[in-house]
Amino acid sequence: MSRQLIDKYRQRLNSETGAILHPWSDRYRIALIYPNHYHQGMSNLGFQTVYHLLNQRADCLCERFFLPDKKDLLEHQRTGFPLLSLESQRPLADFDLIAFSISFENDYLHLPTIFSLAGLPLYAAQRSSADPLVLFGGVCAFLNPEPIAELVDLVAVGEAEPILGPMLELLIPGATDRTKLLQSLAGVAGIYVPSLYTINYQTDGTLESVEVQRPAPKQVRRQFLADLDESASRSYLQTRETEFGDMALAEVSRGCSRGCRFCAAGYIYLPPRERSLNNLLEQVDLGLCQRQKIGLVGAAVADHTQIEPLQQGILERGGKVSVSSLRLDALTTEEVAGLHASGLRTAAIAPEAGSQRLRDLINKGLNEEQILHAVQLLADGDILNLKLYFLIGLPTETQDDLQELLQLAEKIRLIWRETGRQRGQLGTITLSVNPFIPKPFTPLQWAGMEPEKSLKKKIRLLRSAIARMPNTQLNSESIRAAQLQAFLSRGDRRIGRLLPQLTAGGNLKQLCKKNGLDLDFCLSRERTADELFPWEIIDQGIRRDYFRLEYQRALQGTLTPRCVSGCRRCGVCG
After folding, report:
1. Is 152 part of a structural domain of the chain?
2. Across the strands, what pairs with 322?
3. Is the dihedral of CA 347, 348, 350, 351 positive or negative?
4. pTM, rounded to two decimals
5. 55: containing domain
6. How many angstroms separate the CA atoms of 191 and 96, rounded?
7. Which of 149, 186, 247, 378 is deepest in the core (most CB within 10 A)?
């Protein structure tokens, strides 16, 4: 036993508000795991929502697990002390169901550590009927579940609200025969049972076919909640040990109608949905009982049809506003004033590409005049610092596109400098420049990722030029970290077999070679039009031929025509 770790669990629990502790008798016991540190996990609104949905049931209890911090992990390894739940300090093996909530592919690397600390086999085929069932949910589960399909028994394909109830109706009564239970669960809408699917490969390593055992469907249809006013999604637990510790979070919307061709979140949360103003103000009233600041969360917060009345309602109630995104082509003086009044010192905007040609390729729908106008509004609104998000390595990108990125950065810097001089404080501009990763279920899923050598050369060019711009700096993700993310997000079941070695610090390229995989083949090549993708085990509700048409439009630099409903895609509605 480790007194140090037990004390850490209890101190953390005592510093929270909103945790739920149920008696263990006569309840189905669910371990909800965020496979990263507590600080990251408690910043995740989906994680909190699932915790609430499960604990509000009379027949369930749900307790949380997190990846130990570095110091605590060393203590676990030194003492052999198992990973315990935060609420009652019980080990994973005591639970009926282990549910992983995974939003970022790189967190797959933490799974071997968590299973090891729990004393459980990593792969589903190695676990017995005496071990808990393992469920995989979260964004990664309905983007591409295949890289960890052999680690789990079940995958929740879609949003939690419509899936949890029907799934638990089968799980809670239980069954002595696990095989029959899994077959029954395969009939639940949105439940994917990987063991009922056999993947066949061609000699070149691409997928050839998928064999499906009945009653599992050929494809698992993603589930979503049609009316967000019926959702319980908000921050129920409050702690200062998180990125958003000073605010209560309120989910404004899901999905996005913008149709940016690189953005997976814009497609896998279709159709776009928003909460009503009255519903949001009810959330605001509850949130202001906990914190003075309300964090508005969503893929396209600024696109909400009632965003200004919502922000005004928060301010009128004596609260402050924080938003996760700003809409460059519709930013208003009033919106900026509200953000400044809420104490915003750094605004983040996403031109994504420096040249108009590449902005059209990704369907951004913005021109330079709109970008500079938004920058001027933010500068005039006394926002001190500005962060700009750009992608490099987009398909067909040239040196001319990079030069246009630098020219746009310089125009933005001059606006920021002039306004800063007038107020007597210049502030800082930060360019966050990161490699493009062709994600599943986007029109650019056929594209290859630019090779490491070329990306490094581009980063060096940009870094050198930005270094000569006063009050301007450049941040960039590690190229190898981006390659790893691409490998994990676009891979198939063979990826899961590399996880223990990757977790141990193995070199990705060497491990691929050792296991008969070609990293360049996996990452850098352009896919053929008819290639079968690992993630197409999922039916997102968007036609494949629509994605392909959008890819062709991208290469032609053509924007997506708006459909009759006003959105920028017809892959769903017509």
Report:
1. yes
2. 295
3. positive
4. 0.94
5. 3-221
6. 18
7. 378
Q: Is residue 574 part of a domain?
A: no
* In-domain check, residue 113: yes
Q: Is residue 535 part of a domain?
A: no
Q: Are residues 346 and 215 in the same domain?
A: no
Cβ-contact 390, 355 below 8 angstroms: no
Q: What is the DSSP letter of 60?
A: E
The two structure tokens encoding residue 217: 């469907």
- Token readout for 415 is 């606006």
**CATH number, residue 84:** 3.40.50
Could you identify the residue written with the tokens 């270094």?
Answer: 467
- Give the chain's domain count: 2
With b meaning 16 or more CB within 10 Å and e meaning fewer, what string describes 430-449? Answer: bbbbbbbbbbbbbbbbbbbb
- For residues 253 and 266, the answer to whether their CB atoms sit within 8 Å is no
Q: What is the DSSP string of 100-132?
A: EE---GGGGGGHHHHHHHHT--SSGGG--TTSP
Written as one letter, the residue type at 433 is V
Q: How many CB atoms lie under 10 A from the CB of residue 422?
A: 10
Q: Which two tokens stand for residue 73?
A: 């992990």
Alpha carbon 444 to its chain centroid, in Å, reads 18
Per-residue pLDDT tens, the chain, 574 aa: give them. 688 899 999 999 999 999 999 999 889 999 999 999 999 999 999 999 999 999 999 999 999 999 999 999 999 999 999 999 999 999 999 999 999 999 999 999 999 999 999 999 999 999 999 999 999 999 999 999 999 999 999 999 999 999 999 999 999 987 678 999 999 999 999 999 999 999 999 998 899 999 999 899 999 999 999 999 999 888 899 998 888 889 999 999 999 988 999 999 999 999 999 999 999 999 999 999 999 999 999 988 888 999 999 999 999 999 999 987 788 887 889 889 989 999 989 999 999 999 999 999 999 999 999 999 999 999 999 999 999 999 999 999 999 999 999 999 999 999 999 998 988 888 999 999 999 999 999 999 999 999 999 999 999 999 999 999 999 999 998 999 999 999 999 999 999 999 999 999 999 999 999 999 999 999 999 999 999 999 999 999 999 999 999 999 999 999 998 653 444 444 444 4
